[in-house]
Amino acid sequence: MALSNSEEQLMQILWKQERALMKDLIDAYPDPKPAITTIATLLKRMQDKKFVDYIQLGRSREYFPLVKKKDYFSKHVNGLIKNFFNNSPSQFASFFTEETNLSKKELEDLKMLIDSEIKKKHP
After folding, report:
1. Which of 54, 73, 100, 117 is 20 to 30 Å from 24 at the Cα level?
2. Are 26 and 34 contacting, i.e. CB atoms less than 8 angstroms apart?
3. 53 by DSSP, 3-state: which?
4. Residues 94-117: pLDDT tens digits?
5. Whole-angstrom distance between the N-terminal and C-terminal Cα of the chain?
6. How far is CA 99 from the centre of its chain?
C-alpha cells in the first residue's frame, strides 16, 4: 500500500526522528505548519495502512514507524522499474545515468558500487 504525498512527508519526518510526540512532528514541519488535526488525521490513516503505530505515554502518544525507509524506497524503485522500464533494470540504469547529469566522479562512484556488487555475486 502506498502513502499519499502528505503522508510521505510526515513519514520522512518520523523516519528521521525514529520516535516522536505530536509536538515533535509539528515542530519538524517548515512554516506554515499544519494544524494538529491534520497531522492526527494523517497519522490515523498511516496507522490504518500499518505504516506507523504509537505507545500511550500518559495523555500523549509516542509515534514510531513500522516500515523501514529502505524497504519503502526499495518497493517504490522496483515498482518504477516494472511500470516504466518494462521490468528492465538496465533500461532504468541507462535512463538514470543519461538523464540525471551525473558528473564523471559520480559515474565513477556508481561504477565502483556496481563492480562491488558483481564481486559479491561472483567471488
Report:
1. 73
2. yes
3. strand
4. 888 888 888 889 988 988 888 888
5. 37
6. 22
Residue in 75, 20, 69 with CA at minimum distance from that of residue 42: 20
- Say whether the peptide bond before residue 32 is cis (omega within 30 degrees of 0): yes
pLDDT tens column, 49-70: 999 999 999 999 999 999 999 9
Cell numbers 528492465: residue: 88
Q: Which fold has domain 5-65?
A: Arc Repressor Mutant, subunit A (1.10.10)
Q: What angle do CA 70, 37, 58 make, to 5 degrees?
A: 80
Residue identified by cell 523516519 is: 15
Q: What is the DSSP letter of 35?
A: P
